[in-house]
Amino acid sequence: MRKKISLFQIITLIAIPVFLIVAFLVVNELNKDDLSPEQFSAIYGGKVETGYPYAGYLVGYEPNNRINVCGVAIVSENTGITAGHCIISGANIFIGEGNFSYTKIDNFLASDIQVHPKWLKDEAQGFDLATIKINPKIISLEVYSSISTPINGCDYEIVGYGATENDIASLGANRPRKSTGICINSVNNKTFEFTGIGGGICFGDSGSPVYVKGTNKLVGIVSAIISSNSETSQYCHINNKGIATRVDNPDEFSLHYEYENRTPVELNFAICGGSCQQKECAKGLVCNDKKVCHLLDNMDCISTLDNYCSRIANILCEDGSSCINNKCIKRDDVNAAETTAFINETISYFNSNPTTTIAVVIIVGIIMSATIFFSFKR
User: Is 0.70 topped by the overall pTM?
Assistant: First the structure.
């Protein structure tokens, strides 16, 4: 004999999917700050860009589930240049090319990151640069960004990923690839200032490359907006001003990468075991009395589990561990680290695709309700 369904049970069946939807909407609202435009690249105005294939993007999945997105200049099969302040401590960094994607398998996980050792979080002083290495060499392009020298003039463009003036408040995973023309107004030996032409930069547009228009000649990396107005909402507008870090000055760009012709650039910082007589030690190293760079706790250039590592700076990991995002991780834990990155990516995807998320929640609610309903009828 079938059980009679009570009013309480009917209310329960209806309440489950309603509760799931409301819970999602509340969580999504709380997470809006994590996906705010301040965290992302945003060419303001400008035009949709299909050229400059060597202009890519960076996605950083932070430990607190926040996401950081910046521009990247791709200079070889495994190397990108971005702004130093785009590198967030503890974040899993990925490089992407072409159309923007949050999906991990569409991007390349960084194995080594070097922030300029002189970067002091002051854009006007320069040194706001970082290099990102991936392993192996898998970014395949016909041509890569090539270092060039900026001069005053208006024959330049910035390429980035992000909002227009119409959708800055609602930008999620659907990021247009855009560019804007600029005029370089003044150049010093470390940075240059510029003004937008028909477009501008916005919060988080850091790391975006500046090219000689229509070429792969890279003259700088976007560092900051210049504004005399203390009201941050006024920073983003067409034809605004910004500052970029030069990449052609050997004293300024002391990071290792490869030119288009694959000729290695001489390292302008001292690696582990190298002389610091005339060069500063790379990040994570100290200079001893004999003017040799080494790790603080040993001279062997071998880092221990969970500590800093860098192939570029010759700081290697002990046997049984691998260098992932500049941290020695047990090889058995690499899969776990990738699983964590996948979970963060999934959370980010659902936060930026509310329609899909609501549909999933409704389906789950229906399945749960149906399961309970049929269990009541037994």
Answer: no
- Assess whether the previous peptide bond of 136 is cis (omega < 30° from 0): yes
- Beta partners for residue 191, in sequence order: 245
**Is beta strand 302-303 parallel, antiparallel or unpaired with respect to 316-317?**
parallel
Q: Where are the domains of the chain?
A: 7-33+352-377, 41-268
What is the distance between the alpha carbons of residues 289 and 50, in angstroms, rounded to a whole number?
53
Element (H, E) at 154: strand 153-161
- Looking at the DSSP bridge assignments, the partners of residue 58 are 70, 95
- In the predicted model, what is the mean pLDDT of the chain? 75
How far, CA to CA in Å, does 274 sit from each of 32, 132, 184, 318? 47, 21, 38, 20
Cβ-based neighbours of 334, under 8 Å, separated by 6 or more = 322, 324
Taking a C-beta distance cutoff of 8 angstroms, is the pair 293, 274 a contact? Answer: yes
CATH tag, 41-268:
2.40.10.120
In this prediction, residue 257 has a pLDDT band, given cuts at 50, 70 and 90, of very low
